[in-house]
Amino acid sequence: MLKPEERKRAIVIGTGLMGPGIAYTLASAGWDVTLCARSESSLTKGLRSYQAAIDTLLQGGCISEPDAGTAHDKIAGTLDLEAAVSDADLVIESIAEDLDVKRTLFQRIEARCPSDTLLSSNTSGLPVGQLAAVLNKPGRFAVTHFWNPPHLMPLVEVVKGESTSQETVDTLVALLEQAGKKPVVVLKDTPGQLGNRLFHALLREAIWIVQEGIASAEDVDTAVKTSFGRRFPVYGLLEHQDVVGLDTVLAIQSYMCKALCNHTEAGMLLQNTVKSGGLGVKSGHGFYDWSKRDIETTVKQRDAFLIRMLKSETS
Ligand code: NAD
Q1: Closest alpha carbon to 154 in 50, 309, 305, 6
Q2: 145 part of the active site
Q3: Of these residues, 49, 110, 122, 157, which one is catalytic?
Q4: Relative to the CA of 136, which of 100, 188, 212, 300 has its CA 20 to 30 Å away?
Q5: Which of 2.170.150.70, 3.40.50.970, 3.40.50.1580, 3.40.50.720 would CATH assign to domain 4-186?
Q6: Taking 70 as the threshold, does the pLDDT of residue 7 lie above it?
Q7: Is 196-314 a domain of CATH 1.10.1040.10?
Q8: pLDDT at position 162
């Protein structure tokens, strides 16, 4: 297998929310990247999003004009998947979250790519084993789960399936580090990988708190943003327990665990809100009334904060 420094040609498939930012990540590390779509309009949209990612980072002061120019020159677009993968060192798939659709795509890719091409999926939670099962060489396949927006979020979870070789994991980790990401290795092929398991454990409790009338949605978010959320960028959850003292943590957990929501279905409040048409921003209401809030301002504030974080980490 090629060493990470010898790998330089990547294909990213999917031009929706995630694909262009993933393409930027690889291009920023010096890779020649081809963004692959199914139609001209989708490719144009993807290349526009790719440029928007560069512009956001440039305007935010995270990259220089020459870096932006290099990233601009490193991208190409194509509708011809078979030709694109025929000399690829790495293929990252980021299309619809559908097992059969992804498996069909990987069969097409494997039929045409070189025998040592690394293959990965950006799936949010489909099992590595089930995706890799259609491949003749499943050892070269792993999940690389980027976080949204991929050009601003450092974490990438590299998920190892039973058939994934250690060499594949090591190579992906090394190349993601070269691209300035913070990869973590998820050693078991488990639903929700790592980050989403943590996130949904917290989300289940947050929904339960609102459902039970313990606090409003807004106060739940305020509590997250102004307490432990504020420490998280520099101070880990488990690190904090060691600082507190594990005897104290054990005493708290001994009564607290019994009181936490342990339902195995999605929260009733969530189910009922969706049933009554509350889909969040896209329908105008969800946990919040979005007719009274401005989504563009919310996203701008989020991105401005992520850019400040990114700058502080790279400076
Ligand atoms: P999206 O719906 O925005 O984009 C999907 C893209 O894939 C579209 O451009 C669509 O035209 C294309 N596509 C669909 N089927 C295809 C096929 N058979 N061949 C080629 N292209 C096809 O989706 P997204 O949010 O970018 O998510 C992509 C993947 O990333 C999913 O697996 C998703 O679970 C995962 N993911 C999403 C997020 C997120 O926050 N959106 C975060 C992490 C991972």
Answers
A1: 309
A2: yes
A3: 157
A4: 188
A5: 3.40.50.720
A6: no
A7: yes
A8: 96
**What percent of the chain shows pLDDT beyond 70?**
97
Please state the separation of Cα 189 from the chain's center in Å.
16
Q: Is the CB of 193 under 6 A from ligand 1?
A: no
Distance CA 3, CA 151 (A): 24
Convert the pLDDT of each residue in 195-227 to its tens digit.
999 999 999 999 999 999 999 999 999 999 999
| Rounded Cα–Cα distance for residues 236 and 202 (Å) | 15
Average pLDDT, the chain: 95
pLDDT at 24: 97
What is the residue type of 178?
Answer: Q
Q: Residue 11 Cα, ligand 1 centroid: separation in angstroms?
A: 15
- Residue 130: is its pLDDT beyond 80? yes
Q: Is 124 a catalytic residue?
A: yes
**Exactly one of 28, 122, 145, 163 is catalytic; which is it?**
145
Ligand 1: which atom is nearest the Cα of residue 121? 32
Catalytic pick among 86, 124, 165, 285: 124
Q: Is the pTM of this model over 0.70?
A: yes
What is 59-105 written as a DSSP string? HTTSS-HHHHHHHHHTEEEES-HHHHHTT-SEEEE---S-HHHHHHH
Return the amino acid letter for 131: L
